[in-house]
Design goal:
alpha+beta, DUF3253, 4-stranded antiparallel beta sheet, UCP037205, 4 helices
């Protein structure tokens, strides 16, 4: 039976066990070479903090869009570049049990969610 899956420390997606990682599974932290190179930057941490701050300012059941965090962290003309980093930050927060990602009001798996998402506190 394969070991339990893990979460990528960079993008927050699920890493499924593979035979090629049999000897090094304990050391696997990233799902891809791109995630290993990217890691988690100061901007990524700031996006996580901003998501939590924005949620704290709203009612317990309210949600935010990743674009809210991207706009708060980025410049007026460059916030769109922070959309995918904001989604990655939300997935990392889901892994830590701090938030949930929803679509159409229903909680979804952040690793497979496609299209617009909302973020809410757990």
């Amino acid at each position: 039976m394969p070991p339990e899956s893990k979460t990528c420390q960079s993008c927050g997606r699920t890493i499924e066990w593979r035979k090629k990682w049999e000897r090094s599974w304990d050391d696997v932290r990233y799902c891809s070479t791109a995630c290993r190179r990217r890691g988690v930057s100061d901007v990524d941490r700031k996006l996580e903090d901003t998501i939590l701050d924005l949620l704290a300012q709203r009612a317990r059941t309210s949600t935010i869009c990743p674009s809210d965090a991207a706009r708060a962290v980025g410049e007026e003309d460059s916030w769109r570049e922070l959309m995918e980093p904001a989604r990655r930050a939300a997935r990392r927060l889901v892994d830590r049990g701090e938030v949930e990602i929803t679509q159409g009001g229903h909680v979804v798996d952040p690793s497979t969610a496609k299209g617009p998402i909302r973020i809410r506190r757990r």
